[in-house]
Design a protein that fits this description.
- This protein is α+β, with helices and mostly antiparallel strands.
- The protein has two domains: about 200 residues, UDP-n-acetylglucosamine1-carboxyvinyl-transferase, Chain; about 210 residues, Enolpyruvate transferase domain (UDP-n-acetylglucosamine1-carboxyvinyl-transferase, Chain).
- About 30% of the residues lie in helices and about 25% in strands.
- Strands 21-22-1-23 form a four-stranded mixed beta sheet, with helices on one face. A four-stranded mixed beta sheet has the order 2-14-16-15. Strands 4-5-3-13 form a four-stranded mixed beta sheet, covered by helices on one side.
- Helix 10 links the parallel strand 17 and strand 18.
- The longest helix is centred in the middle third of the chain and has 13 residues.
- The protein is globular and about 60 Å long.
- The mean pLDDT is about 95.
- The structure holds uridine-diphosphate-2(N-acetylglucosaminyl) butyric acid.
- The site of uridine-diphosphate-2(N-acetylglucosaminyl) butyric acid has 28 residues, from helix 1, helix 5, helix 6 and helix 12.
């Protein structure tokens, strides 16, 4: 098992290139199952989850080649049964369901895993597939979906916490090859949804309204191969931006898309951070004393749930009280007790965390529990005095390309070590 050792107290300075978006590339790779022809995907980050998706596609019979940040997929022949153990490893694997159903008329896929941040049901994915005419049953931990022919339909895909990102993507991919027109109301508007639609359109899909709550998909008979470059990862960008502010540093993010980060930039400015964007570059520096801000997570274009933990780490550095409310996932506060080990004063009340910021942090051994919680611990560790050891960093490697190297290039004292497991 690997751990990260961080010696805190260094201001981050310099430039950091932002990698391709994990949450766009995973469904895009799954989308390659919709055609027998070759798909070439550029700007693919080297991540554990991408490796897992490659193995899932291979287990379905696709040929996958990785060359640096390019992945080539040829799904000449595919089977509709996904490998149980691989699929269980991450939530993103659920988006093979739509393409397999559309391509083969049936699929058997295990219920997906992923970060432990709440219940994470797939009822909305299944609701959409049922509307397209699929029959669904679950047995032995697998979901079986079948439909000799999918038929376009009108559907409402909003849930308790708003739209569903992967649910929307799954239905768009299934509808792309259905007979007739599908209209999805309350579709997710995240940039990752738009990126998947851009890729599918390059394959010949007919999709209108990407990025709006109403999507209209006119099914086509077949899709062809395509080449696509994945958008920059807005969550990775937000993480480095917050790390720069938290360490009182000055960092320029390159290869990023500031327009995808408006809610985060707005909150950071409200907190007193100087943020300047120019083209695909974003420069972040602390303007003076930080001010506490309240944050509520929302579907895009609101403040992202995937940045809630990192923002909390910044508020821990900020004198005063801030209230951080999580509205997307009900159990996404695993970072709170671990931040407490470093000296943070945070109380949880229902969906809100009340942060009494400004207490000095001191390094300690902490446990990475999920991807974004781990990122928050890295930020706090960078600010703490002394040494912080973050254990179980495989969570970080699921979603952050070369995180230790990128941080070292910004001047941080970070080392990856191998520790013997219990
Ligand atoms: N939901 C349902 N039923 C469903 C699907 C979702 O009730 O069938 C609920 C969820 O429980 C949650 C809300 O709807 O309360 C939103 O979940 P959503 O379906 O949008 O999440 P997701 O598509 O499974 C993706 C990202 C997450 C990110 C969320 C929200 C991937 C692989 N994952 O998950 O990313 O937090 O959208 O933006 O794309 C991460 O990268 O760390 C991560 C967890």
């Amino acid at each position: 098992m690997e751990s990260l050792i961080i010696k805190g107290g260094t201001r981050l300075k310099g430039e950091v290139p932002i990698s391709g978006a994990k949450n766009a590339v995973l469904p895009i790779m799954a989308g390659a199952l919709l055609t027998r022809e070759k798909c070439v995907i550029h700007n693919v980050p080297v991540l554990r989850d991408v490796g897992t998706m490659c193995r899932i596609l291979e287990s379905l019979g696709a040929k996958v080649e990785r060359d640096g940040n390019t992945v080539t997929i040829r799904a000449d022949k595919v089977t509709g049964v996904g490998d149980y153990d691989l699929i269980r490893q991450m939530r993103g694997s659920i988006c093979i369901l739509g393409p397999l159903l559309a391509r083969l008329g049936k699929a058997k896929v295990s219920l997906p895993g992923g970060c432990v941040i709440g219940v994470r049901p797939i009822d909305l994915h299944l609701k959409g597939m049922r509307a397209l005419g699929a029959r669904i049953r679950t047995s032995g931990g697998y979901v079986h979906v079948s439909a000799p022919r999918l038929r376009g339909a009108e559907m409402f895909l909003g849930g308790r916490s708003g739209p569903t990102v992967l649910g929307t993507i799954n239905i768009v991919m299934a509808a792309a090859l259905a007979d007739g027109v599908t209209v999805i109301d309350s579709a997710a508007c995240e940039p990752e949804v738009i990126d998947v639609c851009t890729f599918l359109s390059a394959m010949g899909a007919k999709i209108e309204g990407a990025g709006s709550p109403t999507l209209r998909i006119t099914g086509v008979k077949r899709l062809h191969g395509a080449t696509h470059t994945v958008i920059p990862d807005r969550i990775e960008a937000a993480t480095y931006a917050i790390a720069a502010a938290a360490t009182n540093g000055e960092v320029t993010l390159t290869h990023c898309r500031p327009a995808h980060l408006q809610a985060v930039i707005d909150k950071m400015r409200e907190a007193g951070v100087k943020v300047e964007s120019r083209g695909n570059r974003l420069t972040v520096k602390r303007g003076g004393k930080l001010k506490p801000v309240d944050v509520t997570t929302q579907p895009y274009s609101g403040f992202p749930t995937d940045v809630q933990a990192q923002m909390m780490a910044l508020m821990v550095q900020t004198q005063g009280i801030s209230i951080i409310t999580e509205r997307i996932f009900e159990a996404r506060f695993a970072h709170v007790p671990e931040l407490g080990r470093l000296g943070a004063d945070i109380a949880i009340e229902g969906p809100s965390a009340i942060v009494k910021g400004g207490h000095p942090l001191s390094g300690a051994p902490v446990m990475a529990s999920d991807l974004r919680a781990s990122a928050a611990l890295v930020i706090a560790g960078l600010c703490a005095s002394g040494k912080t050891q973050i254990n179980r960093i495989y969570h970080l490697d699921r979603g952050y390309e070369n995180i230790d190297e990128k941080l070292r290039n910004l001047g941080a004292e970070v080392e990856r070590i191998d520790v013997k497991g219990p």
